[in-house]
Design goal:
By secondary structure, this protein is an alpha+beta fold. The chain folds into two domains: about 190 residues, no CATH class; about 100 residues, Alpha-Beta Plaits (2-Layer Sandwich), CATH 3.30.70. Helices cover about 75% and strands about 10% of the residues. A four-stranded antiparallel beta sheet has the order 2-3-1-4.
């Protein structure tokens, strides 16, 4: 166990020395990886920040059921109770509006009072306003409920505008696809950068590697410093990317705060949780270490 630990500490020491021994090359590689990694981090920050806003907007889509002329207020209330009992998991709130009360509310408005005075009778229908719960908020389920309720014999007109929900979900889906493509691009750039860097190091240190093999060094012992070199590069680039993303979001939030406050909706971009960021950095380290192992395996046989 002590030997294993000593070998790994030695490999980490050698990797750190190589990283610091070529500051310009190391800094260039780290900056390239960090800048590219910043893009998916910013995209994920936008996605993470918009999803709660989307849920708050689409969590309570309302469906309005307007009764036909022959449906009385008593029957409207019975229908409302029936829908509440049958779809209790899908309905958040339900409100029955008497057409007489609705007419009085309109007459209280100065802009409508004069126009309503000339009408011989109340043109408004009884209505049921249903606010859907979280379970029924997804577009497909909400549309299924709207389609089913529109077939009720008491219902004359059903109003449910789902186009804006579909557009919002399409935008979020597009961001997820872009995030996936950016992640794939980051992985490709990390592999390419680390592969070429380790290849050059293996060629420069070919004599050192040859002597190490002559005195009995195993292939694992030879490769281990290069693997840690890739992992340390990925770790440093990941931490720098998080810092750059934080600074960028800070600047964006200063601008977006003015815009969101004008609409009365507090909103700001935030990075994903720390556990998600730690997992991202760990994946970058694993990809970098794998690329380093691949490179040193291909270019250290001489």
């Amino acid at each position: 166990m002590n030997t294993w630990l000593r070998h790994h500490l030695y490999a980490i020491h050698i990797a750190a020395r190589r990283l610091l021994g070529t500051p310009f090359s190391s800094l260039t590689n780290i900056m390239v990886i960090a800048l590219v990694l910043t893009l998916p981090l910013l995209a994920s920050a936008i996605l993470v920040s918009m999803e709660p806003l989307a849920r708050n907007i689409s969590v309570n889509p309302a469906i309005s059921l307007f009764m036909n002329d022959t449906t009385t207020i008593e029957r409207t209330r019975e229908l409302a109770k029936q829908l509440q009992d049958e779809h209790s998991q899908s309905i958040l709130t339900l409100e029955v509006i008497d057409k007489a009360q609705a007419l009085q509310s309109l007459k209280a408005s100065e802009s409508w009072s004069d126009a309503l005075k000339v009408l011989p009778q109340n043109p408004l229908p009884h209505s049921i306003i249903i606010t859907l719960s979280d379970e029924a908020s997804p577009t497909e389920m909400a549309e299924q409920l709207a389609q089913a309720w529109s077939q009720l014999p008491e219902v004359d007109v059903l109003q449910f505008d789902s186009a804006w929900i579909q557009k919002l979900e399409a935008i979020l889906s597009f961001i997820r696809i872009v995030l996936g493509l950016l992640a794939a691009g980051v992985a490709l750039i990390v592999i390419t950068t680390i592969f070429n860097t380790v290849r050059m190091q293996a060629l420069v240190q070919r004599d050192e590697i040859a002597v190490a093999r002559l005195v009995g060094a195993t292939e694992s012992f030879v490769r281990r410093p290069f693997l840690y070199f890739g992992a340390l590069t990925g770790l440093t680039a990941g931490l720098l990317a998080v810092l750059l993303s934080t600074l960028t979001l800070s600047v964006l939030n200063q601008a977006i705060t003015l815009l969101s406050s004008s609409y009365g909706i507090p909103f700001s971009f935030t990075l994903p949780p720390a556990s998600w960021l730690a997992l991202t950095i760990a994946l970058v380290m694993i990809i970098a270490a794998t690329a380093a192992r691949w490179s040193v395996t291909r270019h250290s046989h001489f």
